[in-house]
Write a structure and sequence with these properties.
By secondary structure, this protein is an all-alpha fold. It has one domain (39-173): Bromodomain-like, CATH 1.20.1550. Helix content is 74%, strand content 2%. The chain has helices at 2-25, 27-31, 34-64, 71-93, 98-121, 150-173, and strands at residues 131-132, 135-136. A two-stranded antiparallel sheet has the order 1-2. A hairpin with a 2-residue loop joins strand 1 (131-132) and strand 2 (135-136). Helix 3 (34-64) packs across helix 4 (71-93), helix 3 runs antiparallel to helix 6 (150-173) and helix 4 (71-93) runs antiparallel to helix 5 (98-121).
Length: 176
């Protein structure tokens, strides 16, 4: 399962890279494409399922694999877990302002995940001492494909959630 999550993260990175390349090369063609329309119509659903997958993945690591979460992991969870409920209720009730409630959670979670990712790759970058019990935030449990660790998975999830929430916000406000 851990490798499956790593493959999912790698797939997300490839899709994001291709999306950005196409968007920068031909933004007008892309904005009218079937893929762009599908993203716009399903942005909240996609954000919800990414948050749900991240939450289930986090619980899998701690309850099944017995990886004890570090201090920064706990903070990422604090901002990820509520997104499942906020986005799920917004999706079910079709609340147009859902993205406004989800964006602050996703932004703060992404910042923490980015810091955690930097910390694991550059341990000298530690600003805040990271100790909660015996788990060191700078030591990755596992790294796949040379760079995908749990904080990278978390950062990827938060960035994707942010992307889809911005798409949802723009769709609901009519901004381009």
């Amino acid at each position: 399962m851990e490798l499956l999550l790593a493959w999912g993260t790698l797939f997300a990175h490839v899709v994001l890279a291709l999306f950005l390349i196409v968007w920068f090369i031909a933004p007008k063609k892309f904005s009218g494409s079937i893929l762009a329309r599908s993203f716009k119509e399903n942005a909240l659903n996609l954000a919800f399922f990414i948050a749900l997958g991240g939450t289930l993945g986090s619980l899998f690591f701690s309850t099944i694999l017995h990886y004890e979460p570090c201090w920064l992991c706990w903070w990422q969870r604090i901002f990820l877990f509520p997104l499942v409920f906020v986005l799920g209720i917004g999706m079910l009730k079709e609340i147009k302002s859902t993205s406004l409630f989800g964006l602050p959670l996703a932004i703060v979670g992404a910042i923490i995940a980015a810091y955690h990712t930097v910390l694991q790759n550059l341990p000298a970058a530690e600003i805040v001492p990271c100790t909660l019990g015996a788990v060191d935030c700078a030591t990755p449990y596992a790294t796949h494909f040379g760079y995908i660790s749990i904080p990278v998975m978390s950062l990827t999830a938060f960035v994707l959630i942010l992307f889809f929430l911005v798409v949802e916000y723009r769709r609901n406000t009519g901004s381009r």
